[in-house]
Amino acid sequence: MKRSLFPSLTGGTIKAIASKSVAHRLLICAAFAQEESVIRCEEINEDIAATVRCLEAIGASIRRDGPFYKITPIRKPQTGATLDCGESGSTLRFLVPVACMLGLDASFQMAGRLPLRPLSPLREELERNGVTLSPQDSNPLTVRGALQATDFHIAGNVSSQFISGLLFAIAVSGKTGNIWIEGSLESAPYLDLTANALNQFGIEVIRHESRLEIRTNRGLHSPGEVSVEGDWSNAAFPLCLGVIGKEPVTVFGISPSSRQGDRAVLSLLREFGARIFENGDSVTASPSSLHGISIDASQIPDLVPVLATVASIARGQTVIHHASRLRLKESDRLRAVSSVLNALGASVTETDDGLIIEGVPFLQGGEADSFGDHRIAMSVAIASVCCKDTVILHGADATAKSYPGFWQDVTSLGLISSEL
Predict the structure, then answer these.
(1) Which of these is catalytic: 302, 369, 373, 409?
(2) What are the phi and psi torsion angles at 84 (to 5°)?
(3) 302 noted as active-site residue
């Protein structure tokens, strides 16, 4: 789908959508709990739908009732099932270790770039402990056999999702276990989200310096009803719109004490010079005079596309580094960000692990491609408010992966666009 984005006067108030990162984790815990659960999650996106499909394929009953998921847990896991992960890396990486722990002999169907995204070093650790996986790039990915251990060793600088998947595997085993993390740990806040979800279902994760431990394991027990908190990753887009637009934007329904790492968008915007006001569960971002900064993206990779958009019109130079993992997302995000922003009149240079951005007074406009990547599509929309001329965005429907209501929300904030 193509969409025209016109120079617009934006501002207003919207509610944050539910965090898909939290939703994935709560749904998995609920599916393997000993009691039924109700999860309040007002939004459904493609990634959450993928996790629901896969859990149902294994044997869970998950019913949508208004803003709630009602989950009857898995009583007898289905062996030989095909799990359709779509393009959801979280779904795949969380559930492969679980399937291996339970010996489900499952097949994982993947779409888009997901078959190309790395599964190492998780693959090697699973195989070292008694499981056979089909070769890299195979689709579907098949897993055969059952894990023979609940103690694992894995590098921490590739994907925290691998470590979360192993934590879920230990949790469903009913046994104690340890994960030794080798080297530096990136995206650590996502492990906090996993530990918090497991804790809500009665599993305590103890974090040592280089080891995660489940010391006691009496199985997953439902707390009854839980809620998915507002999503800081997607709230970053309207907040950045407020900073580079003409009128303030307020986002409410986001927890100031959240363990989501992308809450760091507030401190980073303030480093840029942005005026940010917090009041309870709402944040207001106001138009500001901005200057370039240095950004270490190792813990906040998902913020890079929209922060690069802010940097493109900030005075001076912004350097983003420790972001090489972005080349293995739904697109090569470093290349995609530089491509779309330069197409609109920015000055962005790729490096091996990041971007160097020289701020310009305004962007010109033109044509840009989302590369099928939801965060690139949303970043182009935000960039359009700094453009003198119309922007034509190809692949605008990519936003459905994480934020199906994105175009309605930015329209309510005054962004003028039309489908082509």
Answers:
(1) 302
(2) -90, 105
(3) yes
